[in-house]
Amino acid sequence: MGVGHKAENQAPGKAGALIVAATPIGNLDDVSTRLQSALRRVGKVAAEDTRRAARLLESVDARARLVSLHAHNERSRIAALLRGMLAGEDLVLLCDAGTPGISDPGMRLVREARNAGIRVTPLPGPCAAVAALSVAGFPADRFRFEGFLPARRAARLARLEPLKRVAETLVFYEAVHRISAALEDMRAVFGGDRKAVLARELTKLHESVHGGPLDELCREAQSGAIVAKGEFTLVVGGADEARGSEDAAALDSALKVLLDELPARQAARLAAALTGASRRAAYQRSLDLKRSKQAAE
After folding, report:
1. Between the CA of residue 168 and those of 44, 149, 235, what are the distances in Å?
2. SS3 of residue 95 by DSSP
3. Tens digit of pLDDT for each residue in 120-135?
4. Residue 102: what are its φ and ψ, rounded to 5°?
């Protein structure tokens, strides 16, 4: 594909742009003003699923021509799309939901457009991974996005194994028919005490968010408390988060015994020596536990 290998600064001045546009992950009210304007302005839209894209275009009264671009035809469609942009045509790239190229088709077209010197510009919007992170309550200053796990169990376990020591929060997408199996395998690798949040059908009518240890999420999935319908994003606490929970439990356990016999400051000093916690943290926790016990009495 010769046209796809020009230097970035060699596209003709009349060349159009590739607009990589994020679309709602469920709720059409999340369509941005910029997205509406772009869809109404351009003559062509490349979409992963033209039927779904047609509904989106209809909802914003846009009449652009739709071109199918998905994982199975992306390679063969790129040359024609590049020719159109090099001739001055702006193109909007859509995936089914969220942002193209993020566990969805689009990366090849973006790469070839950049190689051809075509301006590639993002039109940001909803993202299931970020939406799930925002409601999970785990550290998100750094996180690791893993996308979809392999369908086969052996490959899935092989992917999960090196992640059990990763400190950052982990984010996964998972298909509805594999959600129970994925949770079971995460429990086997990460341990049943590892905290996780399972977000289902985000922004949609039947949105639900389930949080707790993997043991609990596995039970809820098996019992039907987590409905096996829709789209799932799974956020798992990192190894540091898990160690922090274990350390806190160990400190509480030591303090509860020591506080029965000793004043708070002495109990905290001994608990800190036993668990490796700081004296300040142990003392503060000893005061919290004493207040809780007094309130219960």
Report:
1. 40, 17, 11
2. coil
3. 999 999 999 999 999 9
4. -100, 90
